[in-house]
Amino acid sequence: MENQNTSASVTSSGRGQNKLFVGAVILIVLSYYLGFKQGVKGYVYDPKEFKIVNQSDTPKTVDYGLLWQAIDQVNKKYIEGAIDPQKTLYGAVSGAVGAVGDPYTEFFPPKAKEDFKTALAGSFDGIGAEIGKKDGLITIIAPLEDSPAKKAGILAKDIIVKVNGESTDGWSTEDTVSKIRGPKGTEVTLTIFREGRTQVFDVTIKRDKIEIKSVRWEIKEVGEQKKKIATITMSRFGDDTGPLFNKAVQEVLSQGAQGIILDLRNNPGGYLQTAVQLASLWVKEGDIVVTEARSQADSVKYTSTGPNKLAGIKTVVLINGGSASASEILSGALKDHNLARLIGEKSFGKGSVQELVDLQGGSAVKVTVAKWITPGGKNLNHDGLVPDIEVKLTEQDIKDGKDPQMEKAVEEISK
């Protein structure tokens, strides 16, 4: 999706379908006297002494005059002439937010904010890959099913070293997304580092219109006893996920499926409320699905709303390094309540909560405000989920058209 992780990536989860993310944040947006419009109320710029008169609760030991002084000197002395004040403002805010050191807390200029919202809706031009930062490196969280990225051989956990020959060192995820995205039919070349290889390599991908339904399913008979098994594959927790999943559940129940394989591989997450809604189809009403912890003294418990229509059907969940955020919430809830076994590889470990806060001029800031805790007390942030049955999926398996993880899931569900 070329989406800043919602998340969320995006990240990226929220308290309800009408909000992208949950939480609260206050960001001081500073303005420059010689070219910038007035910023956040409470700060006055003194052109003579380059000092900020602090009228808020910001620590008075911080003198933001340094910012104005630096901008003023560059504006006066830069060899190419006067700098673009709007770009300078966005750059200053982006740098300030990035200094927090959290890969999921970032500033979005107006276009980047609209791209972010469009990606969650599931329709955009690009290569079809969720991108985020891990250990300070621009990383593929997950290529989407049937996307140009997937067809070109891009894998979860691939590190993007360059885009069209430009190093990504120091780039934000928003910087990377803006470079990768482009009109349908055009090409972009990614230089990739992949674990297990000694050298980087280039992958050229033709951009396309990405329109992918977040839920696909099929029911088929397996084994000598013709046992009916439903496979439900989810690419994200987006706008269309709830209605599509409900259709899948109706078909599963009406056809008398005896087992469910829930495939959350390469699912980078999305809305929190959707994860809770889906978990409620298995988890007993009133039981905890996930806890949002802002501090030891401040936490919110999200419980199952029921009805747990699927609780009596044997379930296994497929996860891998591209399963993040809401995928980990759902997987963790089913695992901790002994309602499903996890098969595959360790999940991404993106167990934090972001809120998208609108700012002036159509911009926004996405801020980490809390972390996720599974019903069993597992901190999803950074650690990820370890599968009950570990099964690797290698590059050679993919080339040969094999899927040992799915094969193991079918074997397990058929017992």
Topology, element by element:
Elements: E1 3-4, E2 6-7, E3 43-46, E4 51-54, H1 65-77, H2 85-98, E5 106-108, H3 110-121, E6 123-126, E7 129-134, E8 137-143, H4 148-151, E9 159-163, E10 166-167, H5 173-180, E11 187-193, E12 201-206, E13 208-211, E14 215-222, E15 227-234, H6 241-254, E16 259-263, H7 272-279, E17 288-295, E18 298-303, E19 314-319, H8 326-336, E20 341-344, E21 352-358, E22 364-373, E23 389-390, H9 395-399, H10 404-414
Parallel strand pairs: 1-7, 15-16, 16-19, 19-20, 20-23
Antiparallel strand pairs: 3-4, 5-22, 6-13, 7-8, 9-10, 9-11, 11-12, 14-15, 17-18, 17-22, 21-22
CATH topology of the largest domain: 2-enoyl-CoA Hydratase, Chain A, domain 1
Number of domains: 3
Describe the main β-sheet briefly: 6 strands, mixed
pLDDT < 50 stretches: 3-55
Class of secondary structure makeup: alpha+beta
Tell me the number of helical segments per DSSP (H or I, 4 or more residues long): 10
Mean pLDDT: 83
Shape by Cα distribution: globular
Radius of gyration: 23 Å
For the record, what is the CATH homologous superfamily label of the largest domain? 2-enoyl-CoA Hydratase, Chain A, domain 1
The CATH architecture assignment of the largest domain turns out to be: Alpha-Beta Complex
Separation of the first and last Cα atoms: 37 Å
Question: Could you give the count of β-strands?
Answer: 23
Q: Give the CATH level 1 class of the largest domain.
A: Alpha Beta
- Measured by DSSP, the beta-strand proportion falls in 25-35%
* Strand line-up of the largest beta sheet: 14-15-16-19-20-23
Summarize the amount of helix as a percent range. 10-25%
